[in-house]
Queue: 2 jobs
Job 1
Amino acid sequence: MKTLTAFATLAALGLTTAAQADIRIGATVSETGPAAFLGDPEAKTLKMMVEKLNAAGGINGEMIALTLYDDGGDPNKARTFATRLVEDDEVQAIIGGTTTGTTMSIVPVVEDAEIPFISLAGAIEIIDPVKEWVFKTPHTDRMACQKIFEDMKAQGITKIGMISGTGGFGASMREQCLEVVGDYGIEVLADESYGPTDADMTPQLTNIKNTAGIEAVLNADFGQGPSVVTRNYQQLAVGLPLYQSHGVASKGFIDLAGAEATEGVRLPGTALLVGDLLAGDDPQKPVVQAYIDEYQAAYGEAPSTFGGYAHDAFAILADALARAGSTDPEDIRDAIEQTSGLAGTTGVVTMTPEDHLGFDLSAFQMLEIQNGNWTLVQ
Amino acid sequence: MAELMQFILSGVTVGAVYALVALGFTIIYNASDVVNFAQGEFVMLGGMITVFASMAGLPLPLAALIAIAGTAVVGVLLNKLAIEPARGAPVVSLIIITIGASIFIRGVAQLVFDKQLHRFPAFSGDTPIQIMGATILPQSLWVLAGAIAVFAGLWAFFTKTLTGRAVLATSNNRLAAQLVGINTNWVMTLSFALSAAIGALAGVLVTPITNTSYDVGIALALKGFAAAMLGGMGSPIGALVGGILLGLIEALTAGYISSVYKDAAAFVVILIVLFAMPQGIFGRKSTDRV
């Protein structure tokens, strides 16, 4: 009897140690709801990468347990799930926050619990001002604006028209663009908007077309709007250069708007879109290629930019865990902050205590659509 | 002048979409006084089934037919499984059931299909037609023609056919209709099938303009409902006129005032009309027998 108890205690101890030795990562993304087309590839990517890493022996011999929740794009749910991840699942790090809204509702939870958190959302507010426990992988809206204006300036364009969606992404990007546009000596002569589900933007584009002096048009939005704008743009034969945002940097945009209408459209995108066009010695090339191949093999479709954000978040975390050699959230946080020269799909990441994003404008590629395909603008 | 023309053509394009969706509300409303909030989901199903059937290799017309027939079956199921068991419940309860059904259909659609935006090519190409210096896409004319055809069909159905009159009779007084030999259960099933088919047809016609995805129904149903209210709920001509009017108000506001106030202006006009004419422009006057 005594031996039995001892054995049971031993077994229990053994089990506890085993459970604690595991690395527990939590994630809450918007697999369903209005941001599903962002969150769905993110969730798929996380599942795929955890599986692959575990199959390869985990990190420092320890397996990774991923707890994934679907917040449906609802900030309230995201906050509840973040709390559950911290308190019930006792995770050591959190990835998630598909949208800026869900991210901002997770931030206070992780700051309180002192758990490192890598966000997958765009807005600059997430990392500016720097929050001790919060990091993010996507480019900010402001960087997209700067990249676009840089290209316009190089073309000698000084007067533009803007048309933005009134949804979260479009409204935020419009604001950021208007803030930095002056730095490039560019003037916004027309500033139009449309609702996220509108089916026709020809009145707004007619007004832009009829504004004297406009040399190019910038459409700040993602999802459905830009494809309609691009089709209407062709319908009205506006004939000026059209710039889109990084929000539509996916093959789906070309399919929706059609190859004919998208001909010549320029937008800032990540290396992921143009993996095969990158120079052979580009540090991002092998990373991007491997991700595309694995995703294609696992799900039978090409990965999107948004899946790439999750890829980078997990790569940063895995790299930090390997270097930290510990599962203490504090050590993981410090290791993430020391990330240096890590090639991801969005850029080569080097974090500092002042920079929790880790790359600059050069991480963006300026792309032009030609014959329904991406080309690099040199 | 060219500017005004472009705004009008834009209004007609969008308005025809609203009108087509609004027309779908009329039959179920006429048969049961229920505003079917799953109508937008019928439109979504029409678009999505067509997209996925044509991706599976079927020619577009066949895919569209399958979508319309399939959606009609969904309409019948909705009536049999959700509305009929609740027979005798107040209209408000039935309306709430349709809201539940719309959430359910949306949930199933995102599992069965996917969460991406889709589109199929316009029926007669994307070359814009020039009218007095403005342009309109051929697909808009398809939508407009579809809306007018459905309107004409509905008008003939309700005024010229016995079945159509049976639908109206069922709505007026279900018991009396039964007493004169109308199979009211069958009338309800028929109206759900027809409404779903009209919704699906709308989905097939508008997808090349609006794109489609599993959640496109909410926005379309909201605007379609607003158009139907403006024109007069249950009146086919009201749905047609209400839809086009709503589209024109939006386009002209976006063009001449500011695109920011586009939706607000449309709803202000609807509010004013409903204050003055609570039944909508072409709505039936409701008379209560004492």
Job 2
Amino acid sequence: MKQMDAVQRRLLQEVADLHDIPEGAYNFRANGESVGRQSTANIEITSKTDKSGIDIRIAPGTKRESVHIPVVMSESGLKETVYNDFYIGEDSDVLIVAGCGIDNCGTQDSQHDGVHRFFVGKHARIRYVEKHYGSGEGTGKRILNPVTELYLEEGATAELEMVQIKGVDSTARTTVAELKADAKLIVRERLMTHGVQEASSIYKVSLNGDGSSADVVSRSVARDKSYQKLDLCVVGNAACSGHTECDSIIMDEGRILAVPSLEANSIEAALVHEAAIGKIAGEQLIKLMTLGLTEAEAEEQIISGFLK
Amino acid sequence: MLELRHLSFAADSDGKDKEIIRDLSLTVDNNKFVVVTGPNGGGKSTLAKLIAGIERPTDGQILLDGEDITEKSITERARMGIGFAFQQPVRFKGLTVLDLLRIAAGKTLTVSDACGYLSEVGLCAKDYISREVNASLSGGELKRIEIATVLARSIRLALFDEPEAGIDLWSFSNLIRIFEKMRDPENNRTILVISHQERILSIADEIIVLADGCVTKQGSREEILPDIIGSQYATNPCRGMTEGEQA
């Protein structure tokens, strides 16, 4: 594997909690090229031949294994779209850690658009963790537009943890999921924007099989003059249950548009949505101040707890 | 020693300044358990908030052990050792009971220390330590956690605003035990409780009756309690509950 510089290592730590090469299968991408890859007996990673990206094939019955596919960009002005497809064998149970860190110290925009498709086999289970992070003092923007598509076979479970807390100037996140009978989707999204950042997060979850269920929860904080649009839609086409929740804190001059929506195309569909936007309650700040925190410290505690 | 000198507080009410605390002066000695009672709207909660710095007086001074704290912020007063338990505990999405106790203690608190505080308020620690302080907790549970946050702090003046409000009878007897333990002279704490409850009044060293923003009576329990017992200033929790009154 090629050597990474200090900036790339720092980005890697932010997005994948990694200090060095992880155990198991991995593919590291830095500044537009693969810098390290390892397949294992059960997890095979190969390059796509028709476009940029990789195929990850997980053998049926693979348990307690992990795949790391972090991306770091430290050159200003890079723009790329990467297609990664995951084929997850029946009855497997794996952890997939993705994530992208961009450090842009230059004047040109840097952009990474990752298109991830997951084909989750019958009764397989995945936990997918995706962290996005940006840093750098340059005027060039850090842009990330991830697309996540999930196709869950019967009895499959996907648990998604999507986190974007810092430094990404512009993001359009799109997540689409289609669930067959008894499949289950759990999403926990955490989003924070600051400065003049703009973020949109769009979900469309189709519950197509009897017994399928989805629980999509987004918690977000918009600070300074940032703007967020959260559009969470669950479609019930069978005897299914779905829940979406957008819970947001606005600070300073932050703005948020939350559009939770439900569509029931079956009399047996049970769907619920909740949405709440508000500033930090004054009484929460006062309570923590009576415990000895300053107002700024209290604010930080409340935000970090909310986005935990 | 807590000393209030000519304290006044006015708040805007329908465009007019309404005086809630009027030229109030009183002294509370160290190591005392003092209960402030009086009619609803008499200014009791406002008084506690003025002492904690949550409200600012329109006139007068507040001194703690001789130091004028009138201009000090909530945070500064907290750091000087003033603790405040809210009548309606605040909920936090995401912050756990352990997080809150750690913030209260102002230091890295071990899980076993945190469990100790929870046990003191009658909560089985392992069931609560990682629970979020959110709407999934009942009013009584929140109240006990609120009291635990005060216990976790090293304080010299503890203020409790109607600690019995919203808790069940079992918790109420437990509350009395907590107060009895807290008032141990070795702890060197002054405790000021806002309450109408006869049982809390009956363990007070001193009772202050506040009405219409002024102290109308102040003295030892022996002097004051016989005068007010059975009145709305010294009610019995069972009676309050059966009649559906606000405790």
